[in-house]
Amino acid sequence: MKINGFLKDVLGSSRVVKARRELIKSGSETAVFRDPINDVARELHPDVTHVKVTKVEDVSPTARKYTFEADQGDILPPFQCGQYVSIDLQIGDTLTTRPYSICSAPFEARTGEHPFFEITVRNGKPGTGYVSCWFYENVKAGDTFTAHLPFGQFYYEPLRDSHNVVALAGGSGITPFYSMAKEIEHGTLDINLTILYGSVSTKDIILEKQLKAVKSDKVRFINVISGDEAYDGEKGFLTAELIKKYSEGDTTYFVCGPLAMYHFVKGELDKLDVPSKRIRMEVFGAPRDITAAEGYPQDFNPQTFRLHVMRGIQEDIIEASSLEPFAVALERAGIKNRTRCRSGACGYCRCQVLDGDVFVPAEGDGRRMADKEFGFVHACSAYPLTECTIRIPIL
Amino acid sequence: MAFYKDKYDVIVIGGALAGMSCAMKLASEGKSVLILERHNLPGGLATSFVRSGIEMEATLHEMMSIGPEERPLFIREYLDEMGVRINWLRVPEAYRLLSPKDSIDIIIHPGRRDDGTWIAADEIEAQYPGSRDEVNRLLETCKSVYESVLFLNEHTASKLTLLLKHEPLTKTAGYSAQEVMDKAFNLSDDVKHILSAYWIYVGQPISTLPFTIYSFLMADYLLGGSFVAKGFSHEMSAAMAHRCEELGVQFEYCQDVEKILVRNNHVYGVRTKRGDEIHCDYVASAPYPNVVYAKMIEPQSEVPAMARKYADAMPLGVTTFSVVMQLDKRPEELNINDYSVFSSNIPFDTDVFWKQGKQLGNWSNLTTICLNYANPDAVPEGKTSLSITFLPLADAFMNITADEYQDMKRRIAKQMIEQVSEYLGVDLLEHIEEIEIESPMTIAHYAKAYRGGIYGYQHSMNNSVVARLEDVEKEMWIKGLVGCASHQLVGDGMACNINNGKIAAKMILEEMKKEAK
To answer: Looking at the predicted complex, does its ipTM rise above 0.85?
Structure first.
């Protein structure tokens, strides 16, 4: 038998031990540390980017475009059209963050003498958009912020999406499409883009001048006005009929706008039998009224509970309204907490509920299966129903 | 007001599988343990992600060392002993190897009968008549080596005991899998290829892979089959994190440890990026020795010359490139009929495959996993969850810039999808609903692993596990500092990392006893 002839050697282990010791001895004491893969990973996904507002421009009677450049020697990371930036905001004693779709083009953040990115903020209606009101009224050129970017999956993926893209936008949901249009004009995004932008009246249109200035035969921009019978152009809502009119062949639909618009547009796309892989929806933020969410306990009276917040071996007790997610309670108490999408999707604010009952709206619940089982929630989309104890990271 | 205790017995840097395993073991022995994890999730690479409400597996192909409930293998036993409950699901086959250039297309199943014959040997015999006895003999040898390795995992043995009781291990320890298969067995090239398909799960070509490791892989997978967790690999991670906390481990997320504090050649604490200095007697470290010795030890004058030599000399193992997709049809509608397929579009040769790992793309040997066949409930009705993976070397990615990154990723992913589409006879590019592409930079981003490495150091002949075992205690270059991840003794893989953590805990417990004297 072959094995008897070959495997008589019992010194093999000594041999490999010797080989390894020699290998280690051959190592350099003075080798220079080099890890370009981690360097690139950090450049792509910096923990934090210091930024400064360099320009503020009105882009509608109620919306402003803010230009940011990197500050303190940082550089802006690359991003893809449709991704968002999360900006840390201190408003009084409250520490919060807001996600804003980047409306400038990716190439503008990585080229030129003053690389920049831009966001557009619409003045919130009283009582519904506290932070956007504050941002709109207060932020001016020269202000500095810490920002986190890029985030989000609302971007054109050539391996998946059709070359023909129809954007269905409402309100400030137009912003990612301005980014796409500019990148197409620059020749670095090769798609055909038709933007159908629904507004109540012409004065609600954001970035109109900018979008009309985009020079590319691959970009079409169509306003759709629902509240003005006299409007000379497309009137009404983003209906199946209208969507069909502007779609040519295999099309991917990108939808970005207020929650009510998602529900309406989804129904219209279903009428056209658009397959699910051809529909991309941006996440839509926290519900304005959690008690109206599907599955919310009936006859539950809004109230304020004690919230025990565990960080390491420290416990803090704060107040938490049943109408607001944990993330907001923490922010009001000035406790640092890391939120990004604020829609329940991204999981940056993952935390553990040690005790108490919590409501998590099913719509936008981005939790992992095992996290649900072990009592983890995303603080931006978990609402207390009793006194609770949660464990959050030490930040 | 303080977030941390004044002092811990042990601080574990990195709450991945090894770190949690180490912490559980130490806590179950009554030690005070703090885990500092830089991410906001447990498990390191053992994780999942959610896209458009659909959870997708990030990394796990199959867990080894679990085995069926009635015949558990050692990691299932260890997790049971530690009180970790995981919903295991059995993977149907071992693998399908598809290498058209060699006319190989075979499906191998796990299973051994009491008379020492293996189902795989019958399956190979059916296509390659006359090979059954030699395949059985090879697998029995593997099993014998495997059992010896498991024995040595729990006990120490004298050279004489090794020789008397662990003869197959002793006699094969100096040889590669290739040498043993070539010289000690009568196997045709095709059969050798078929029995080399698992090479990718160590990322080491058969010619330089110690037979010891080869045996472990073959015997473990073919005895016990392989498993996945019902709640993706994140279930494993979440269940272990949960158990850690039940055992009294303090587990802190979002804590990036920047420094390991050393004086008089003994660790005494760590400092986090946040600025907390936390004290302890022992540190179990997931960061690679390369990073630990070059960047983390404070002061740097405490790094012994041998530690630097060691880190520089250790050959870095593979990283990963993986395309994870949800497809818009059922697997059978896409001609996908197997859980695990190893395919090659050139003649099967692990040396060539491994060398291809130094280039950016155009990799011939791909692993395709269809989760539906092991965990159908995890995939939405009417859809397919599919991943395509190759494990290249970090060298290939060292010159990619941030601006080239997206295009590079998509170009390679497209190649890989087209390559699989070709053998399926179905254009998968027309069926993608969700797609995520994972690269070495992805690994670096989430785990900060040195050069995006996923498998620690190579299991090469000059870095054999037998040699590692011999010297493991001598390589505690700084007292109280123990490695705890795939760069340690038993190397890569999720099950191995649970074992690495257990070994790290045992080393720390030993040191504690010694130092107490």
So the answer is: yes
